[in-house]
Amino acid sequence: MKSLFILIPILMPFIFALLLNLIKFKSKKTRNIFIAFSIITNFILTICVLYFDINLKLEILKLNDFIDIYINVDKLGVLFSILASGLWIFTSFYSMEYMNYEKKERRFFTFFILTLGITIGIAFSGNLFTLYIFYELLTLFTFPLVIHAESKDAFISGRKYLIYSFGGATLVLLGMILLYSIHHDLSFIPRGILSGVNIENNQLMLIIYLLMFLGFGVKAAVVPFHSWLPAAMVAPTPVSSLLHAVAVVKSGVFSIVRVSYFIFGADVIKNVNGNLYASIFVGITILMGSLLALHHDNLKKRLAYSTISQLGYILLGVLMLNENALIGGLMHLVNHALIKIVLFFCAGAIYVKKHIKNISDMKGIGKEMPITMWCFAIASISLIGIPPTNGFVSKWYLALGGLNANKIMFPIILLLSAFLTATYLLPIVVIAFFPGYPGYKDEKIKNNDPNIKMLFPIVLVTGIVVILGIFPNVVINFIEKIVIELI
């Protein structure tokens, strides 16, 4: 019975979502208290399960070696689950205020809570089949969030999201079937289940790896499968922050890490040159994401293309197949999540308070919303990778990994992309603070920062970004323990 405790962080969000729809709350305040209680409780339960190490393995259903639903929590799963659960708390408080300006709040929070359970399920998956099941469910449970506005643009974006996601999942399924045909084990084992297995057909192994890389790469917005992500910006800002910071894109990256280091292993990937072919897609993704961001005046879309580029950084760390690179990749998985959630929170606050969507309309907004825009500026500097920010730490390790792999081109790509990141983010800060408020004379300008419910999550996560830049060893030490097991 003790082993069933491992299911609590996965199942409790489903119970909370059901209660949210069954209970007739007297007011929005009461409903919001229940939502906060649900998210925080699930975070505490996740910590308890991990801390007390309550039989972190559970066989749920096994029909054969392929159809096997199995839960197994390891250090990588701990990293992802804590990151997701923690950021869900900040997003829930932010959403309580933001969704006052949207309709259908109960439906939003229902799927918002359900998606948390699915994301924890992805983190705790013990084999490829279980990961695939939760991965498909993630698409289904986030779809209502993408089409929340129920406008024509929302339905077009939602359709594109489904087509791309299910298309990618089909590639993964094909790769799984081919893999099973040569090795009847889909379990996640550090250094890979294929390590030491004598497989003569390297070409088939390369095809299987690329199928899975590109299949999971759809949610990770790998070019040319990236266009669903900017299109999904029609969703409310809390949804955008989840899509870009944790739930969807990071699940894609997380799955690629699982396939690369727990199914194939670094040695097998090198032998079949899987990293060489995959890195071509990643290099294009990094540069194209940055270049496309430059051309968009819409703030959320610029941030969306920025996400595409930054996800490429993480995947580059995965594909270099050495310790420093993987430390940098996993560190950037955490850092980018924190930075990007701040940027999207700020974009949402600007829209709520000023109804501004385009960067060209943000002249002087730093005088009206100083706290919001200072947080935006700090997050922007961190994303560029200027020391001593957390973004610099992860990119430093990525550059070291490139040098260790004798791939001088990779550090050059990182430097070029950092320059492009500065080119599309710093002008926003300049426009906000330096040109001045239109028509400004000497009169005092009213402070239009959002209220404490929206501002507190923005400031708090910005503080975490700063702290992790100054004291990065808290995360690095844990990530090093993960990497030692894999390489």
UniProtKB/TrEMBL annotation:
- Residue limits of the NADH:quinone oxidoreductase/Mrp antiporter transmembrane domain? 125-421
Residue ranges crossing the lipid bilayer per the database entry: 6-23, 35-56, 76-96, 108-126, 161-183, 203-222, 242-264, 276-294, 303-321, 333-351, 371-388, 408-434, 455-479
Under the GO molecular function aspect, what terms does this record hold? NADH dehydrogenase (ubiquinone) activity; oxidoreductase activity
Please give the GO cellular component terms listed in this UniProt entry. plasma membrane
Q: Name one GO biological process term.
A: ATP synthesis coupled electron transport
Keywords linked to the UniProt accession: Cell membrane, Membrane, Oxidoreductase, Transmembrane, Transmembrane helix
UniProt cross-references to InterPro entries, sorted A to Z: ComplexI-like_HydComp (IPR052175), NADH_UbQ_OxRdtase (IPR003918), ND/Mrp_TM (IPR001750)
Topology class, membrane: Multi-pass membrane protein
The question of whether Membrane is a record keyword is answered with yes
Is RNA-binding given among the entry's keywords? no
Q: Where in the cell is it found?
A: Cell membrane; Membrane
Entry protein name: Multisubunit sodium/proton antiporter, MrpD subunit
